[in-house]
């Protein structure tokens, strides 16, 4: 269980933690390859294989999360394509109630996301998730992804927090590892970030949340 008495600040990821990662996985694994295949006279499997290799080379960097970068690289309007399927954006089960309980607890709550600011704005527009936060931080503001130490250094300058009394919940193991190196004291992962596929087995080095109703703040 989360030791809430030891936590003053809560840092929360967005995609795969609070919002269902099924939207993003559908977008990048199905919708973008469909459009890229059509644009370049490829089959969809050819486009998917090409994009998976291309995107994988940038994994963990700011480019990987940058809509402007991929619009330029792929010759597609990524922001416009996201709007076309925005009805798929939604909360993970129990996430909104968890956010409301956090807000009522009086703790400072900050969103920390690698999402591009335009993607963040779209998801705020669709969900109203911003109402639960004291601040929304995109790694693009700091020109460093959460996997990189400069992100945490710049975050602590802009939104000071005591690392050992801070909780981070994130579905990404590399991000949690980066936060651990920075000294954040309470680190939790997510077992089921994408509702369209089975939950991940808990074989990870960090404790993991299955249902938010089991970790309600006190």
UniProtKB/TrEMBL annotation:
GO molecular function term, any single one: 5'-nucleotidase activity
Highest taxon above the source species: Bacteria
Transmembrane segments: none
Region (Disordered): 199-218
Top-level class of the enzyme under EC nomenclature: hydrolase
InterPro entries named in the record: HAD-like_hydrolase_sf (IPR050155), HAD-like_sf (IPR036412), HAD-SF_hydro_IA (IPR006439), HAD_sf (IPR023214)
EC number(s) given by UniProt: 3.1.3.5
Signal peptide: none
Keywords, alphabetical: Hydrolase
A UniProt-annotated Pfam family: Hydrolase
Protein name: GMP/IMP nucleotidase
Gene source species: Alcanivorax quisquiliarum
Lineage, opening ranks: Bacteria, Pseudomonadati, Pseudomonadota, Gammaproteobacteria, Oceanospirillales
């Amino acid at each position: 269980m989360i030791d809430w008495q030891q936590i003053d600040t809560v840092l929360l990821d967005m995609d795969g933690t609070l919002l269902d990662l099924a939207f993003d996985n559908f977008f990048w694994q199905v919708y973008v390859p469909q459009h890229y295949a059509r644009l370049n006279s490829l089959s969809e499997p050819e486009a998917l294989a090409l994009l998976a290799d291309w995107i994988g080379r940038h994994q963990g960097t700011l480019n990987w999360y940058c809509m402007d970068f991929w619009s330029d690289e792929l010759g597609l309007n990524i922001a416009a394509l996201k709007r076309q399927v925005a009805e798929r954006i939604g909360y993970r089960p129990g996430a909104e109630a968890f956010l409301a309980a956090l807000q009522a607890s009086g703790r400072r709550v900050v969103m920390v996301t690698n999402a591009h600011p335009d993607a963040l704005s779209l998801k705020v527009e669709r969900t109203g998730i911003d109402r639960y936060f004291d601040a929304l931080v995109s790694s693009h503001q700091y020109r460093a992804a959460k996997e990189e130490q400069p992100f945490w250094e710049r975050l602590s300058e802009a939104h000071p927090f005591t690392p050992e009394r801070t909780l981070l919940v994130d579905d990404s193991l590399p991000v949690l590892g980066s936060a651990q190196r920075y000294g954040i004291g309470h680190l939790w992962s997510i077992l089921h970030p994408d509702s369209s596929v089975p939950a991940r087995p808990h074989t990870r080095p960090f404790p993991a949340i299955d249902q938010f109703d089991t970790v309600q703040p006190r």
